[in-house]
Amino acid sequence: MSKAMHAKPFRLTGPYTARHARPESPRSKLIRAVSLGLACVCLLLTATVYPASAATNSTSMASLQTKLDKLSQSINQHKKELSDAKKKESAAKALESELKERVTVLQDQISVLGGQIAAVQNSIGEKEQQIGVMQTQITDKQTQIEQKQNEIDAQWDDFKKHMAAMQELRDGGSVAMLSAVNDLYELLTFNEVMQDISIKDTEIMNNMKSAKQGLEDDKAALEEQKAGLEAEKAELQSQKSELDSQNAQMKGKQSELNNSISAAKLSAAEAQAAQQKAQAAIESDELNYEAVKKEIQKLIAAASASKPQLSFSGFACPLKSYSRISSEYGWRKNPVSGVNKLHAGIDFAAAGGTPIYAAASGYVQVAGWSTGGYGNYVIIYHGKMSDGNTYSTLYAHMRSVATSAGKYVKQGELIGYVGTTGNSTGNHLHLEVWKGGSKANAVNPRSCIPIPHN
């Protein structure tokens, strides 16, 4: 097919008759006409087959590029989901930690409150014991008062009988007693005896009343002490009731916090599950992305194989304007990750939106988003240069891509615009040159590409 496309055009001329040829028979003329007709048909088929194949190839490439773009969008979406899930997990764990600290503080407060409740309960118990002792003493005093009252009542009965006898003695027996008196001394003695009896009776009654009053005073004092103890007990019971209420509230709060901790743990677990799901989706999409890239590269390789004339004589600078070379090819500390690694290209610092052109003619192998940190990027396969080596170039961190995979671009053709996508700290073009078509054989672009200034 390839040879047919590039063969010299042939022309049908007038019938040629050799100088000494025999006249051509009608049958020979017919055979020659049929042969010429078949040749024309073959030429027409040859002329139309390749374009049809190219159109099919282009359609397949466009379809694969669409898949690549969708996978890139899916990867970005899953990365956002992964980032959101990580933030959610971090927030849930921070909340869990904070709630645990609050529970610890609350447990300390509950412990202190429990000690206070126990102390008040002990005081209530002591007051109850004191009240019990007081009540026993009051009961004993009451018994003593009753006994004393009985004694007073008995003495009073005796006193009344004695007074009645004395009255009778005064009323009816005084004359008999006087007649029985022999002298004045007996009379006086009798009178003193009667006075002594009266005084003694009065003294006994007063002592008994005084003793009763003392018992009643003691009882009243004990009852007053008891009332005081009962008031103190009531105050302690009020304090205990308040402490019990606080304790119940704190335990309720502790239960709420424990439930919140469980919820935070569940939220963290759900976030971890979401991370695993997002990570699995990213890995699946990346595998599919790489598979589609390989299919595109196969189509490009097939197209390249059908174009053996693909070659070029040299490179041109991909930017018509830039401010400076911000980073050279070689080992350095990565400004994003901080890891010391090989910088496999040159960085052209330029304003965002600066046009980027193909450094040489070739086929676009990749045009889209990179999962490896290049952001929006393009890879072009250039074929063999005059030095006999095959080359590819990579253009990374573009704001946007202006070409598509599978497309043939000419040197100086627009392929994208300077940006800062992917792992980038500012607007620039990252340019790599691969000898042999592989990143493993990346060379210093300065050895191949003319760079107007530093």
TrEMBL record:
Keywords noted in UniProt: Coiled coil
Organism: Faecalibacterium intestinale
Every M23ase beta-sheet core domain range: 342-441
Recorded coiled-coil stretches: 61-95
Protein name: Peptidoglycan DD-metalloendopeptidase family protein
UniProt entry tagged with the keyword Ligase: no
Compositionally biased tracts (Polar residues): 236-249
Family matches, as Pfam families: Peptidase_M23 (PF01551)
Extent of the signal sequence: none
Region (Disordered): 1-25, 232-256
Family annotation (InterPro entries): Cell_wall_metabolism_enzyme (IPR050570), Dup_hybrid_motif (IPR011055), M23ase_b-sheet_dom (IPR016047)
